[in-house]
Amino acid sequence: LKITPSVATDFIQIHSAAKVTGVEIIDMNGRSILKANNATTVNVSTLAKGVYFVTASNAKGEKEVAKFIKK
Fold first, then answer.
1. What gap in Å lies between CA 19 and CA 59, rounded to an integer?
2. Contact 44, 70 (CB under 8 A)
3. Which of 34, 38, 48, 71 could cross-link with 25 by S-S, CB 3.0 to 4.6 Å?
4. What angle do CA 33, 38, 43 make, to 5 degrees?
């Protein structure tokens, strides 16, 4: 799983070898902040500055995790 840009202000792009069916953004305290279905572009402009984890799920139920910084 790859997130671009790794330091974001407005949007992130999610790149995965498998088709992404679900996305969840989690803060450093483990709280779920945002969820989206079938999204490869996510608007993060409303998030507070900090470090977040993105969990991407695919149709097989597999999950991948990556990190990005909200500036």
1. 7
2. yes
3. 34
4. 45
Q: Are 67 and 14 spatial neighbours (Cβ–Cβ below 8 Å)? A: no
Number of CB atoms found within 10 A of residue 28's CB: 10
What's the one-letter identity of residue 39? A
**Which is it for the CA torsion 5, 14, 33, 36, positive or negative?**
positive
Q: What is the pLDDT of residues 29-40, one digit of tens each?
A: 999 999 999 999
The secondary structure of 4-29 as a DSSP string is ESSEESSEEEEE-SSPEEEEEEEETT
pLDDT, tens digit (0-9, with 9 covering 90-100), for 36-57: 999 999 999 999 999 999 999 9
